[in-house]
Amino acid sequence: MPSDTTPLPALAILGAGSMGGAVLRGIVRSGLGGGGITVTNRSPEKAAELASLEGVTSLALADDPGANAAAAADADIVLIGVKPHMVPDLLREIGPSLRPGTCVVSLAAGVTIATFESILGSGIPVLRSMPNTPALVGQGVTGLAAGSGVSAADTAVVRRVFETCGVVVEVPESQIDPLSTISGSGPAYVFLLIEELTKVAVGRGFDEADARRMVEQTFIGATALLAASGEDPAELRRRVTSPNGTTERAVAVLHDARLDEVFTRATDAALARARELAAG
């Protein structure tokens, strides 16, 4: 939760899908949306899901085709949450309605700040963000990169938006794609480890429910201990790994599997795909 309790300025989230919706819920949960929040979605059904959130005006493009431009006109910060291929058309649609100085923030993977700036022109500060899915429960990591026309005050207020759903790491734009391979894709790596260890537990004779309970709570407990202790994870691992014990034997097998190389190859593959998407 942000330490600064000053209400956020007026916000618009255009395309409040999974990630835009996660940020929206973080703002609502924080109680900082005092400036008002307007969100848009294509369908009335999706708009209705968000309409009950406190302080939120939820609009459906099916009912009001001009909702994006109207929401952007009234906002001090506009978050762009539509699919990447839809971004240029949306920017052309809302550009004439934006007031000078309105911060426009991308949630769209692979769309560069240069794309935003070339369409919106000067006078509109542009930032690029890369949140991850744990933002849904207020435990996200958001990478944040500022464009050429962004002031320190602009960055600070946008940072506060994302701090409502986790922590923020400010990086140059060149680091957004590498960041996406770590924190952006990272939850999938963790879920995969949980999947595989659960299969092992079932293979050891535990039923599915007990296997899931053991494995999932082990990961939850380990990360909670890491957060509470403030210790380096390597030190916590050493404390679990008694000399000549069972854990030491297991960890030796994992080291022999060269997990460092596996994760390097995996993140290299993710980075190559991110660059393909940006180029295409």
Short account of what is shown:
The chain is 52% helix and 14% strand.
Explain what you see.
The protein starts with 10 loop residues before the first strand and ends with a helix. Strand 4 (77-80), helix 4 and strand 5 (103-106) form a beta-alpha-beta unit. 52% of the residues lie in helices and 14% in strands. Helix 4 packs parallel to helix 5 and helix 8 (186-203) crosses helix 9 (208-229). The longest helix has 22 residues, at 208-229. It has helices spanning 18-30, 44-51, 67-73, 87-94, 113-120, 152-163, 176-184, 186-203, 208-229, 233-240, 246-256, 259-279, and strands at residues 11-14, 37-41, 56-60, 77-80, 103-106, 126-130, 140-146, 166-170. The protein has two domains: 11-171, NAD(P)-binding Rossmann-like Domain (Rossmann fold); 186-279, ProC C-terminal domain-like (ProC C-terminal domain-like fold, Orthogonal Bundle). It has 280 residues and is of the alpha/beta class.
CATH-level-4 superfamily name of the largest domain? NAD(P)-binding Rossmann-like Domain
Report Rg: 21 Å
* CATH class identity of the largest domain: Alpha Beta
Question: Please, how many domains?
Answer: 2
Largest beta-sheet characterization: 8 strands, mixed
Would you tell me which CATH topology of the largest domain applies?
Rossmann fold
Distance between the termini: 37 Å
Topology:
Layout: E1 11-14, H1 18-30, E2 37-41, H2 44-51, E3 56-60, H3 67-73, E4 77-80, H4 87-94, E5 103-106, H5 113-120, E6 126-130, E7 140-146, H6 152-163, E8 166-170, H7 176-184, H8 186-203, H9 208-229, H10 233-240, H11 246-256, H12 259-279
Parallel strand pairs: 1-2, 1-4, 2-3, 4-5, 5-6, 7-8
Antiparallel strand pairs: 6-7
Helix pairs in contact: 4-5, 7-12, 8-9
